[in-house]
């Protein structure tokens, strides 16, 4: 077919008019191959799409049939005849009417029978979904730099979160300006930044160590297990360091990349970031017994740095504007996050206890008369009602 | 192609596939007319479609690519022709319309893919019955399916009770959410990216997935404490049954790994960065011990076991030693979990040949070097009863279902006192589809070379790639896995869409190829 003209089937790769016959042939062959590649791609997409639409037509007409027959057994095939624009249902058999690519315009999921969302909601090729439609949960994957296929992003790792400062500076994510790199502002970040953080930004979770049952932030899990399971006792980190340094000098004879100098800090170095550790333990505390807040398990340094969303920070002291935020990830009904300054005032549970009683005197001072009595009465009970007892919060009024 | 064959005297009538809820019975109204005619027409149509598929997939492609116009002009084309389903004509696209108008034949088969074209619809149609045949022919080369036979063995009463069972199952189970598609990242628990990449490649391995999701190892029945196979089972459940889209915390894997007392892998149990390949070997052997015969696989021996790991990853190598003096041949067979391909020598050789620019290798170069070329060695021959020069030939006796290949990028320069480790950065091009026939024992013997069937059974598709980025002593592992036709890149907890060009452009360290047909 390519012989009379100087190109092939696709007609894209044209040989010049004065080209020799071998030249023309080469152009024609290349053009034909291009045609075949496009043809193969198209036929694949065509197949997937047409089968999905045909199935959609079938599912819809079967649904109509089972509705029409109101049989008690859901999977029995009703002996009725139903017809739609796209298909005919007749005694358990579905046949098509016309070309499903013409008659059917959307695709329903063959499993859950809900319509499929056909465009991603964000990133490349995004379209706004119709909010009135409940779509199948299988959605097109999102293709957007800095986000994963589900449109999620993560709180950047900062110092004290398993990354060294120099790594941090290199890789700080421009998409997360709310995430301050300095540990000092971490508390404020969680409090004030929680709102500015996009809803699909996730924090790193914690996991329970299978041996000591403590809750450890995931990025530190390997280090923890190294000291907890790898060897035990107080000398663990020293022994591990010894072992590692031995391993470095002679352990790699078999094509293994030698252990790095830049790897995660040795178990011993963990002491350098007490805040982090306390955050972990605090987390565990909350997970196990929410009410026993005054449990003395917390270290004295336990500043209420809630690295994790699960953490419920409840010390509400004195007057001040508080921010209440619903958080769907949470176990408890609400996460109440105090502004950072308030939190740092309450560095230890012991102090918190004391402060908890304070509102009895402090609130009348700060605010007007009648409400104070209500607030004061509540405050005595426990930390949770204490917060609602403060004057600025609506429930007290 | 010869004239239209008479319908083979098949004792059994060909049947249209029985109706399945959620799919129409026929590809279009016109196919419906053809296939709900009398039984003779159904038989001949389906048999003839099968024959055309055999012509397309088993014969030389030139047969189907050569067409004849009404005027008798014969053309061979690179692009698709159409084979008439109702007579023996092979037509080009233009001629197809004329043929249809003249003879009233309306159904044609694409000469390159076997797809059915309906001229009434002016469109390709995907009829369930015929498409089923085409897919089976393309995949396994035969039309029979074991499943069908299995079903036919049962009497109607048994079938009825099977239906009852199905009803019971559907009434008492909840289907996993459509969201749960196994695509999740795994959090880095502190320099554990070497584990994450291997775990991801296991998670997207269809054989392992089916084994674990099919309750192959039930964690609630297992008595072993901190069993790694149980941890794998839990992980598969979490990936394929939960709606979660955030990263997975592989705490159980990690603790199982720390607790495991494998002396050979002592080096692995540190908190530092490690070799992904070593972890792959560790995990495979550990899972073999939990699921298999309990025997430790010895390196260099022929170890067979029916466990999932052996069924998935293990193949057999044959080393043939030929004495140069007396010509005596000894064969040794050993099992392998993966093929390790050296890069250094080849890279140096290539570098000498093409001094300009970066040397670039292909995976096939590396395989040729290892499994086609022979090498010489000293060998104590029993016949000659003396030490002789011998030729050694390596070949693959039994191909595994999932072929894992390690490109040895990490090398120790031995010899001198200071052993400097280095990473070989040579680019190795690897294909999406790999034919292993030339490296097999059968493929190297002459008689095996021609068979299309054998050729087809050695075709592998790329399943996942593990890439090491960075320096020898520090760096990061990322991996790419294919789910269906879509590639994804896994960087710890981050999962992103990947293009084929990203995958093929990566500096691969481990490659996993999956056999195309399990026939």
From TrEMBL, chain A:
Region: Disordered, residue numbers: 153-199, 239-397
Acidic residues composition-biased segments: 280-289
Q: Bias regions of kind Low complexity — which residues? A: 245-260, 305-317
Q: Where is the composition biased (Polar residues)?
A: 385-397
Supply the name of the protein. Answer: Transcriptional activator
Q: Tell me the organism.
A: Xylaria multiplex
Source organism lineage?
Answer: Eukaryota, Fungi, Dikarya, Ascomycota, Pezizomycotina
TrEMBL record, chain B:
One GO BP annotation here? protein deubiquitination
Keyword Zinc-finger appears in the UniProt entry: yes
Q: What cellular component terms from Gene Ontology apply here?
A: cytosol; nucleus
Q: Sorted alphabetically, which keywords does the UniProt record give? A: Metal-binding, Zinc, Zinc-finger
Q: Which SUPFAM superfamilies match?
A: Cysteine proteinases, RING/U-box
- GO molecular function, one example? zinc ion binding
Q: Which InterPro entries match?
A: Papain-like_cys_pep_sf, Peptidase_C19, Peptidase_C19_UCH, USP, USP_CS, Znf_RING/FYVE/PHD, Znf_UBP
Protein's recorded name? USP domain-containing protein
Q: What is the lineage of its organism?
A: Eukaryota, Fungi, Dikarya, Ascomycota, Pezizomycotina
